[in-house]
Write a structure and sequence with these properties.
6 strands; 3 domains; binds arginine; 19 helices; two-stranded parallel ribbon; Fumarase C, Chain B, domain 1; Fumarase C, Chain A, domain 2; two-stranded antiparallel sheet; Ribonucleotide Reductase Protein R1, domain 1; mainly alpha
């Protein structure tokens, strides 16, 4: 970055003194918007091609522009491009370099266009690519979850409400609950993508342009579904960025829920799972420690994404039509949101298949806390006892179990019959953990057969993407 550069500004004509050095730095965005250079070049190529077709540029001029822009792309990729704060943003840096390289023809590229529709186009193009890559990460994570769910369709663990043991569930069922959250996130992401996939190019500064432009053509060349409808809205709309960040906030919220459980499950008191060493770090003072840093960090990073959502909402609030410089502030929150969720999804997609559940510990934990109490009540109801009376019988059995330190499944028939003589041998079919989960045999239930079927439906959806 050469910030002492006193090159003449592309808009300098009506100005009588140079920009204040601080103002130059304060108003520049090239430090962070240069990451959109590919999309800026692609947008310019499409614009130039369209100008050629409608007769504003000659074919020879188009070829010079095309060659010049491709050379610039190569320079940037090679790290040889000199970014200049004086030239404010990615758009003017590239345009000025084009004119350096090809002379007067470079100055014709901006015909019928403004940085306002240019930047609105670039962000959409940039975000669309990132959405496609995020969609792949989400899918890889979901594939990992559904595969692990199939492996553990019969692995029993306690299910919780209020973080108190409630009823036994299978580990596969628990993993598929996580998958459902991500399935909705994916749908939200696709929805956001389809709504934003309209081309603002041609809106120019705010009102459109007097050149005979072909907006359908640029939209098509850039892979948009259509041109945007209204020029004022085109240059000022940033709700696609808000929508994407809202999607990201929800994904991060979901990942934070998974993280919380992973952190709990890896601690010595739960010990439900092992996370391989490569996802953990140690302590500089306590030699015994293996800390679940990856889930902890993911949990912590929700804060910044939620912050970015609020930043963007606040940025848009009360903005009059059409473009305002405020909108330059959309980029850093949006870019950091993208970077953050890509890292977090990658961490999770790598980590999930590596989780090793400690089946014995999970099973033992499910036996503590009287997790089949509801099954005993349902059993009594099936034998004709009213639910409230059944609840009372089971309550007394549990009180006895607490005193004797015995789970319901560990009591003898005689012990159980103290509380109701309706109980017979068949009770053991429902009091076992296996019996309890197998009995929840309907769509959305925890029975192993249902978990396998649900995982297969989920896998088929993933394959159909
Ligand atoms: N860097 C600017 C942005 O990010 C580009 C558009 C500037 N337009 C203008 N009229 N100053 O919003």
């Amino acid at each position: 970055m050469t910030d002492q550069d006193h090159a003449i500004k592309p808009w300098g004509g009506r100005f009588s003194e140079p920009t204040d050095a601080f103002v130059e730095r304060f108003t520049a965005s090239v430090q962070f918007d240069q990451r959109m250079y590919h999309h800026d070049i692609n947008g310019s190529l499409a614009h130039a091609q369209m100008l050629t077709k409608v007769g504003v540029l000659s074919s020879d001029e188009y070829l010079q522009i095309q060659q010049g822009l491709e050379d610039i792309r190569t320079e940037i990729l090679a790290g040889e491009f000199q970014w200049s704060i004086t030239l404010e943003d990615v758009h003017m840096n590239i345009e000025a370099r084009l004119t350096d390289k090809i002379g007067i023809t470079g100055k014709k590229l901006h015909t019928g266009r403004s940085r306002n529709d240019q930047v609105a186009t670039d962000i959409r193009l940039y975000l669309r690519d990132e959405i496609d890559s995020i969609a792949k990460d989400l899918t890889r994570l979901q594939e990992g979850l559904t595969e692990l769910a199939i492996q553990h369709a019969s692995t029993i663990m306690p299910g919780f409400t209020h973080l108190q043991t409630a009823q036994p569930v299978t580990f596969g069922h628990h993993l598929l609950a996580w998958n459902e959250m991500l399935e909705r996130d994916y749908a939200r992401l696709m929805d956001c993508r389809s709504r934003m996939n309209q081309c603002p190019l041609g809106a120019a500064a705010l009102a459109g342009t007097t050149y005979p432009i072909d907006r359908e053509m640029t939209a098509q060349l850039l892979g948009f579904d259509s041109p945007t409808e209204n020029s004022l809205d085109s240059v000022s709309d940033r709700d696609f960025a808000i929508e994407f960040t809202a999607f990201s906030s929800l994904v991060m919220t979901h990942l934070s829920r998974f993280s919380e459980e992973l952190v709990l499950w890896t601690c010595a008191q739960f010990n439900f799972i092992d996370l391989p060493d490569r996802f953990c770090t140690g302590s500089s003072i306590m030699p015994q420690k293996k800390n679940p840093d990856v889930p902890e960090l993911v949990r912590g990073k929700v804060g910044r994404v939620n912050g970015h959502l609020i930043s963007l909402l606040t940025l848009m609030k009360s903005q009059p039509l059409a473009y305002n410089k405020d909108n330059q502030e959309d980029k850093e929150p949006l870019f950091d949101t993208i970077d953050t969720i890509k890292d977090c999804l990658k961490a999770y997609a790598d980590m999930i298949p590596a989780i090793v559940p400690n089946k014995e510990v999970m099973l033992e934990a499910a036996k503590r806390g009287f997790s089949t109490a509801t099954d005993l009540a349902d059993y009594l109801v099936r034998k004709g006892v009213a639910f409230r009376d059944a609840h009372e019988v089971v309550g007394k059995s549990v009180a006895y179990g607490i005193k004797e330190n015995k789970d319901l499944s560990e009591m003898s028939l005689q012990e159980l019959q103290q509380f109701s003589d309706i109980i017979d041998d068949s009770v053991f079919d429902v009091l076992t953990l296996e019996g309890s989960v197998a009995a929840r045999d309907h769509i959305g239930g925890t029975a192993p057969a249902q978990v396998i079927a649900a995982a297969k439906r989920a896998t088929n959806k993933l394959k159909a993407r």
